[in-house]
Amino acid sequence: MTIQSAVAGRRPGDRIAALAARAIDPKGIVLVLLIVILIAIVALNPSFAEPGSLMRFLQRVAPVAVVAIGQYFVIVSGEFDLSMGAVVTAQVMTAGHLIGKDDAKTVPVLLLMLGIGVLIGIVNGLATTVLRVPSFIVTLGTMLVIHGGIMWWTGGSATGDPAESFRSIGRGGIDGVPVLELIPYAVLILLAVVLIGVWVSRRPFGRTLVAIGDNPDAAAFAGAAVGRTKTAAFVLSSLSATIAGILLVGYAGVHPSVGQGFEFTAITAVVLGGVVLGGGRGTVLGALIGALTLESLFTLLNFTSVPATMRDAVQGAIIIAAVAYSGVVFARRRRRQAEPAVESDASPTTSAGVSPSIPLTDGNEAGRE
Questions:
Q1: Separation CA 356–CA 369 (nearest Å)
Q2: Are 75 and 283 contacting, i.e. CB atoms less than 8 angstroms apart?
Q3: How far is 243 from 299, CA to CA, in rounded Å?
Q4: What is the dihedral of CA 327, 73, 69, 313, to 10 degrees?
Q5: Judging by beta carbons within 10 Å of its beta carbon (0-12, 13-18, 19+), is residue 256 exposed, middle or buried?
Q6: Angstrom distance (rounded) from CA 186 to CA 168
Q7: Is position 368 within any domain?
């Protein structure tokens, strides 16, 4: 019997049970939660379901989703990147101070910002892998160094006003689109980041990251370049923070606090999307759905007049609940996988005391097989 015929031959009760099992999986429950939250938002504000409103919502979510995808590559490898918010702020301030009203500086400054992102990622990666300093400490130090440098540079005040050609990247879009009316550039950039992220995660590099997060010693024994791969993950994280900073210049303005808290928002979104802290499990799409769910939840809280000061408390509760739920689910799954192994140890043997699963042949026949 083929797999397709077996699935098709399932009774309705079996299918419902299979769907229920997927729904309570850490990767499935967040999708169910997202749907429930969106339904609640539409019930409170029916205009939210209009195409134009949905596009504006995705435009707001884009920076958070981009940093969440970047954070995914670091967390799935078993590390953390707490410097993302500071990198976002640094890139926003760089654009605000260096571009000014001169459109001719847009491309050179963009290239400079990307170079800064790569450099910060390399520093974080090498300090973690070569100096053997925990990534939590390394990126916390990087965050403080960058934040202190920004405050010294700007005096803590909002300065700089980039040219409109640069700001349009974050707040502009393609007008006159049927039905959607406007497709923001931020949404197109987010789509590109998602596609690239999924492609990278399915390449040998992405699979190696997951293997390193699951068991770095085994990955190294198998020939994986652990240090180089983790450093590349930190570079991807810093580049994603750079892209988020470019988008935020468009509608958040130039302010030294614009990136504050982005690192914790990214971690919350990644954990909510089913990516396991400590590495080894998770997907790019899970991180994306986690970011969408988190921002949808904050939108719902705004519609229900919950104070904005509760946002941090909600994020903290989500992290605790998501990590605890994932731990319970994966612990049950490991126990179920271990049960067949225990049963197989008690398999019957032949009269000679040899398991029938082992071929009774000489060495030459085994070699020919």
A1: 17
A2: no
A3: 23
A4: 40
A5: buried
A6: 9
A7: no
Summarize pLDDT for 80-124 with one digit per residue, the tens: 999 999 999 999 988 888 887 778 888 899 999 999 999 999 999
Cα(87)–Cα(71) distance, integer angstroms: 13
Q: Is residue 62 part of a domain?
A: yes
Domain of 96, in residue numbers:
18-325
Contacts with 231 (C-beta within 8 Å, 6 or more apart), sequence order: 121, 122, 125, 126, 128, 129
Is 332 domain-assigned?
no
Amino acid code (one letter) for 299: T
> pTM for this structure?
0.83
Query: Quick one: tokens of 275?
Result: 């990516």
Domains identified in the chain, total number: 1
Helix ranges restricted to H, the chain: 3-8, 12-23, 26-44, 51-75, 84-98, 106-129, 135-154, 164-171, 185-202, 204-214, 216-221, 226-252, 262-272, 284-303, 311-345, 363-368
In degrees, rounded to 5, the angle at the alpha carbon of residue 95 between the alpha carbons of residues 92 and 98 is 140
Tokens describing residue 106: 């847009």
DSSP summary character for residue 177: E
Quick check: 89 and 75 in contact, CB under 8 A? no
- Token code pair at residue 200: 């990278």
> 3-class DSSP state for residue 190?
helix
Residues 176 and 173: their CA atoms lie apart, in Å, by 10
**CATH number of the domain where residue 314 is located:** 1.10.3470
The answer to whether 208 and 229 have CB atoms below 8 angstroms apart is yes
Q: At what angle do helices 84-98 and 135-154 cross, to 10 degrees?
A: 30
Rounded to the nearest 10 degrees, the angle between the axes of helix 12-23 and helix 26-44 is 80
Tokens 């919502």 -> residue:
57
Q: Which residues pair with 174 in a beta bridge?
A: 183
- Token readout for 236 is 């991807």
The residue behind tokens 């160094």 is: 145
How confident is the model over 196-247, as pLDDT tens digits?
999 999 999 999 999 999 999 999 999 999 999 999 999 999 999 999 999 9
Q: Which residues of 31-47 are buried (b: 16+ CB within 10 A; e: fewer)?
A: bebbeebbebbeeeeee
Those residues whose C-beta lies under 8 Å from the C-beta of residue 361, and which sit 6 or more positions away, are 369
Classify residue 342: in a domain, yes or no: no
The tokens describing 365, both together, are: 């026949």
